[in-house]
Amino acid sequence: MIILQSHEIREWDQYTIRNEPVASIDLMERAAGKCAEWILQQNWQHRNFKIFCGKGNNGGDGLAIARMLLNKGYQVSIYILEFGKLGTPDFQTNLQRLHELPLASIHFIQTEEHFPHIETDDVVIDAVFGSGLNKPLTGLTASLVKHINAAHATVISIDLPSGLSADTRAGNDGIIKADHTLTFQCYKPALLVQENGVYAGNVHLLDIGLHPGFLEGRDFAQNIITKKFIQSFLKKRNPFAHKGSFGHALLMAGSYGKMGAAVLAAKACTRSGAGLVTAYLPRCGYHIMQTAVPEVMVMTDQHEEILTSAPDDLSKYSAIGIGPGIGTSKETVALFSNLQSYGRPVVVDADGMNILAQHQELLSQLPALSVLTPHPKEFDRLFGTHQSDFDRIQKAGEQSVRLGLVIVLKGHHTLVSTPDGKQYFNITGNAGMAKGGSGDVLTGIITSLMAQGYEPVQASLLGVWLHGAAGDRAAQALSQEAMLPTDIITFLSQAFLELRAQD
C-alpha cells in the first residue's frame, strides 16, 4: 500500500476525473458518502452534530456529509468560515444543495463572537482545510481550532486534522486534536509519525475508488507493510525438512543484571522458527538461560559479567544478532571487530547501537545489508539530534543508502529504510508494547528470520509485522496495560497462523 504526498493525491484525483471519467462534484459525493457511512455505523443518532467548513473542497466534503446526515434524521448544524470570497465550484454546488433542505441550519463565522457553544456530548466534524494546507493557521481560523479543542467533544477530521500539513512537521499548536481522522484512499506521511498522534487520533482509511491506472508503472518510495505484501514472500516449510533446514542463529547478548534481555531475544528467536539457536553469554548467564529457555544452546565468554570476545568460529552460524543487554564497557567493543570476518549481514540492537554511537568508525565496518534497530533516542545518538520525526525519516533514508544498511527505526509505526532508497511503515502494533524488552523480542525475531534464509530487508519487513501483529493479539487478550514482552512471544503463534490462513 502506497503513501502519497498532498500534490500526488491531487494528481490522482485529477487523473480519476479525466480517465474514469467522473465529474469532480460526483467524486466529492463519493468521498462524502464513505464518511457518512462510517459515521452512521457509530450509532450517534441521538447526539448533536456541529460541522465546521472552510470554503475549499474539504469544506465541500463537510457540506455533503451534513446533507447526508440530515437526510438520515440527524441533528446537524453547519458553520462556515466566512472571509468574503466565494468557495470552490464544488463547495458552492454543495452549499446550494444544502440550502434546498428545509431543516438545514447554516451559520457563517466572521468573528469569534460567531463561534457556537460546543457541548462535550456533541460530535464535531472538522472539514475546514484537510490536506490542502501548507502553512500554519493564524487569525480567526487558529482561534476556531482552539475553541474546538477546548470543548473536549468528540471530533472527527475529514482527510486530515485542520492545521496539520500532510507532508511536513507540525509548525505550532494551531491544529485540531481529532479523536478520529477519516482519510481518503491512502495514508499521508503526517498520519504515520509519532509526533502527530495527538492530532490524528484513530485513523480510518476510506477507499473512494480513485482510478488504479494512476499507479500503474510508477514506483513509490514510501509504502505501508500489508499482510498481502508479507504473504507474497512468506516461505513455505518443506514437510521433509529437518532442523538444519531452518538455520542456526547466534545471539550475542546479556551482561550482569541484564540477562532478561538475552532471554527475551532467545525465546523470540526460537518461537520465530529458527532450527537451532545458540546464545553466547557472560558466564553469569549460563544457568539463567539453560533454565529459562531449554531449547537454546549456550556458550559462555571467559568473563563472568560481560562479553569480551566473540566465539572462535562464526562461519557456522546462519545469522547473528548482537546487542540486547550487553552493556557498553570498553572490553565489549571488541565484539564488533570480529563481525567483519563473518562477512554476512548481522542484526544490531540496544547496547550494540550505543557502542556504534560511541565508536562511529565501526558503522562502516559492518557487513553490507546488516540491520540496525534503533529507537528514536538511539537513532539520534548515532546520527545526530533531530527536531522532528520527519527529520529522522529523511535521515534514515539517507543513511541506509550511504552505509548500505537496513535501518529499522522503531516507533508506533516502525519504519524500515532500505539501501535502495525504499521506506516501509508498519501499522501493526499498539501502545501496550511500549515496555522494556519489546525491542529485544524484535531482535530475536529478525535474527531468526535471517537464519531461515530471508534476505535482510524481507526479514525486517516480516519481523516488524509479526512483532506488531503478535502485540495486537496480546492486547486483545490481556489489555495493553497488562501485556508483557513475553506475551508478544506467546502470541507470535497467532500472527503466523493469520499469515498462513490462505495456505
Structure description:
- This protein is α/β, with parallel strands linked by helices and 503 residues long.
- It has two domains: 6-220, Rossmann fold, CATH 3.40.50; 227-500, Ribokinase (UDP-N-acetylmuramoyl-L-alanine:D-glutamate ligase).
- 38% of the residues lie in helices and 15% in strands.
- The chain contains 18 helices and 17 strands.
- The chain has helices at 6-19, 24-40, 57-71, 89-99, 139-151, 197-200, 227-231, 259-271, 286-292, 334-337, 339-342, 351-358, 376-383, 389-403, 438-451, 456-478, 485-490, 492-500; strands at 48-53, 75-81, 105-109, 123-127, 154-158, 180-184, 202-206, 222-225, 248-252, 276-281, 297-300, 319-322, 346-348, 371-372, 406-409, 415-417, 423-426.
- The strands form two sheets. The protein has a ten-stranded mixed beta sheet with strand order 8-17-16-15-14-13-12-9-10-11, sandwiched between helices.
- Helix 3 runs parallel beside helix 4 (89-99), helix 8 (259-271) crosses helix 15 (438-451) and helix 12 (351-358) packs parallel to helix 13.
- It is elongated and about 85 Å long.
- The mean pLDDT is 95.
